[in-house]
Structure formats: C-alpha cells, structure tokens
Amino acid sequence: MKIEISLHALRLKNVAGTFKGTSDPFAVVTKIATEPGKKPEVLGKTEVIKNNLSPNWVKVFIVDYELGSNVKVAVSIFDEVRKSENLPMGCAVFDIAEVLGARGNTKGKQVKGGGTLYLHVRKSNGSGVLRLKMAAKKLKNVEGLFSKSDPFFELSRKLDAAGGKTWDSVYRSEWLKKNLNPEWEEAAVDLSILTEGDFKKPILINIYDHESKGNHTPMGELEITVNGLKAAAESRKPLAVRLKGKDAGELYILKADVSGVDSVTQKMAAASISSALPTSSPAYKGVGASTGGRYNFLDYIAGGCELNVVVAIDFTGSNGDPRQPGTLHCLNSGQRNDYETAINAIVSILSKYDTDKKFPVWGFGAKYGGEIQHCFQCGGADQHLGVEGVLRAYHAVFKSGLVMSRPTVFVEVIRAAAQHAANAHASAQAQGGQCYTILLILTDGSVSDVQATARALEDASKDPISVVIVGLGNDDFSGMRFLDNFSGPGTGKRDIAQFVAFNQHRHNSQSLTRETLNEIPTQLSEYFASIGVRPNPPIQRSDSSIIMEEEEEIDLSLNIDEDEIVVAAGGTDYVTY
C-alpha cells in the first residue's frame, strides 16, 4: 500500500533572532531505520513558507506501508536563513501505524521549545502525473495604486468531509513579480494526490498576490476537473477567473497532459472529455462525483473502522511443563518465551488500530475441575488493557489450577470469536460505525480434527473476522498449512485464515508481524465488499480536538544543501530485533 504524508504546524517558536523578522520554516522528513541492517532514508523536504510560524506545507510525501511493518518518520523543522545555513526549530517522531489508527488519521506532537507539529496520513493511488502549464491575462490588480500584484497559483483537492466541502492545497507555483499577465512554469502534480486518479473530481485553482509576510491576497479562483483542464487545453478557450462573484481575469490552459495512467483509465477519461466543458458555464466548471472504484483497507480505516483483536492461547500438554526451562510456556523473568514474544510483537501492532486497546484473552486445551476446556477466559476480566494486560492475563492462567491436557481443538474459539465479531460489528453499525475482528491463535501443534476446523472457518467466513494462526515449536504444522490454503478463489468462500511458523521469524519481530498480518487488509476489504458496505467518509478532526503528545528525543543529524539532504549521523534509535 502507498500512503501520503502531509504536514502542518501551529505557533512554532520564532528563531530568527531579535530585529530579524519571522522565521521561514521548512521541514525535512526522514524514514527512520527500524530493522537491523537498515539505514535511515531522507524522503525529502517541503517548500519554505516565508515569515510564518504556523505553516501549512503543500508538499506531500509518498511512503510504502504494510500492515505489520514498523514505519517511523522523523520530521525536522528548520528556519531557512540562507541556502546553506538553517536554524533548527524542532523535531518530532511519528509512528505511521499510530497515525493511521488515530481518529482522522492525524496526530500532533508538541515541539520542544514551542509549537505543535501535525502529521496526516491518507491513501495514495498510483494514478499518473498531470503536467500543467497555465497563463493568465487581465488579472485584477490587488496591490494598490502604486504597484502591481505578484501572482502565483495553488491547486487544491476536494476532501470528502461530513461537514461539507473542504479544500486542501497540494501544489503551489512560483510567484511572478509585478505581472498581471503571468505565464507560470510547467507544474508536475501527482494525480493520486490531486484527485485520487478521478478525472471528474473537482479541482480548485486559486490565484494569489504574493506577500513577503505570508498573508497572501486572493486575486481570483475557479473550479474545474482534469477532464476540464484537458478540454480547455485542446480548445484554447479562456476560463473565467472570479473574485467575490465578479470577473477577475482569464486563465489559459497551455498544456494539460497526463502520463503514467493505464490505458483503460485513459480511454475512459478521453470518452468524457468532450462533455467536460459545458458551453453554458463561463468558468467551464466540472464537478463530477467520485468514481468510487475499489476500496481498500486504508479507506475503511480512514472512515473510522475499528480493528478488534481476540487472543487465543494453546495450553495443551504438548507445550511441556512450564516449570521446566526450555519449554514453550516457561516463564523466566529475564527472557520472554515464544508465546510472550509473539503476543508482544503482533498485539503491539494491532493495538494501534484499536481505540480502547482492550482485548479478550482466551485459552484452550486445559482441564479445570477434571474437565477439558476448549475455550476459557484468561485472567479475571473479559478484556485486558494493552499488550501488558494481555501478558498479565496469560501469566494468570498458571496460577489458576489448570492442568495442561489434550487434544488441540480450535473449533470452539473460532466459533466464539466469529460470534464476538458479529456482535461487535452490529454494535458499531448501530452507531454508524464499522468493526472488524482478528482472532490470533497461538499454538504449538497441529489441530486434532482438521476437517472440523475447516468447516468452522468456512462458517466464520460470513462474519467480519480474520483468523491468524502462529505455530510455535518444532511441529511440522502440515494441518495448519492445509487450513491456510483451504478457502478462497474457487471455493465460493472468503479466505480468512493465515498460518505463520514462528521459528522462521524468531530473530526478526518485524518479519514476523509482516508475514502474520499481510493478508488482513485484503480480507477486510473483501468482507465489506461482499456485503455491499462502503467505507464511511474520512473522519475530519480539528487541530484543537487532537490529543497532543510530547516530542520524542532522537539522535538524528542532517546535512542540508541546495542539491541534496543526507543523514550525517543517527536515525537508528528505533531498531528492533
């Protein structure tokens, strides 16, 4: 999956110095190393915003992301004094999974020394590049009697907000000094950012008079689509620029070429260009609705879909005596056993998408009062807070008088989890939300009845659930691999099972979580598609409603010059094994 990162800040500390005006901030985004052998990677820098302590940068950064991967970025803010001399204004570290799991996919960090930095994440669609060249004529001068305006333009995308139309700037041109008939340099804009690849989605073009203090004066605007831009380029007809309902000049589209789009998309776009510019519209506005397309995991998460996690732990006798060192359940205060390691790695990732971070923890394969139990509650509560709560519930079982037994049966925990998933989603739906459940089964051996387990998975495939089975120990797990391949294309049933052998990822927790969780995004989107449920509109959050977190200290040194930014030192504080 590709995601977009955008940034803005509020009330940064002015570091320009006494009598030197206001800082000119820009930000550098660095992907921090989180795996052994990896190096930090500079993703790029934003534009410089002159004389502004609350910058809203238009530069967007594209990052590859997988559920289960540990992606962290450091955002370093600088005041541009001269091209080679920059004063630091603060730095903050963001965990991308935590941002995706936050309401509105936005998190804020308090910057040491003053101010707040916000990072927002949204889905990116690989939809080609719009190469746009524009010129304007007869713009109205807004500078006053004794000077001329210095025009530049911005392109803004339309956001689907529950409160109505919202525009978000994604491109800003250069400004041309004292020119009411400007011809700007060609712009190259990623269509996935501008319109999500939809040639009929509205674009807002704003023209401003540049002011050195940053309070730019509006000169006019118009609303159009990619198809409208292409048609205007072909016709060479001017587009009307309006300011407060009055004519404010003409805009000419000299070039509007799209590259890097698949042939089917281009043919669909070409078929509708002829109707993109209704002659009755003086500004040639085109405000087509989104094509919708295929929704993915990020669409549902952005709309507030909750991920619930249920943990089921194998307490059968084949795990060995937990009092003996080297057995799978042995509790040693100095080192985690394999069950603890798997719980810590996987639940840590999934908890970032769960608002209340409370998880049911169940056990199976143990005797209580002489009777074998294939699904029982671990700990003294039906849910446990965070990873530490899950681990405490797991540890509590060994103080409860259980007798480890056999056989290994998954059927009851699968059925119970499927019912839990159905109830959780129904409860969320009643409040206008959505919910999807992940059952994490940790086991040391193959199930006793593979066919019965397969039938239970088949029955559960109608519910909003995925089942992840992690095999610990040295069993051959042949039955588990059968379950992994049981359903899916050709069976008429949704694929909901994933099996991973822990030993293959013992020394790399990120490899374990990636392999364990990599099928869940597809399984989630396929479930909602199968029942005809679209994502809710992306949640919009005001800055004041976002919970602030303190800035994290990070050892990161950057060398910045006009042509290149490189990591001079640090950027490895978050490497995990």
Automatic annotation (TrEMBL):
Q: Does the keyword Protein transport apply?
A: no
Source species, domain of life? Eukaryota
One example of the protein's molecular function in GO is: calcium-dependent phospholipid binding
Domain C2 stretches: 1-109, 113-239
Q: Which UniProt keywords apply?
A: Repeat
Task: Kindly give the CDD domains that the UniProt entry links to this protein.
Answer: C2B_Copine
Name a GO CC annotation attached to this entry: plasma membrane
GO biological process assignments: cellular response to calcium ion
Q: Which SMART domains match?
A: C2, VWA
Annotated Pfam families: C2 (PF00168), Copine (PF07002)
The entry's protein name is: Copine family protein
Q: Which species is this record about?
A: Nitzschia inconspicua
Q: Where is the VWFA domain?
A: 308-531
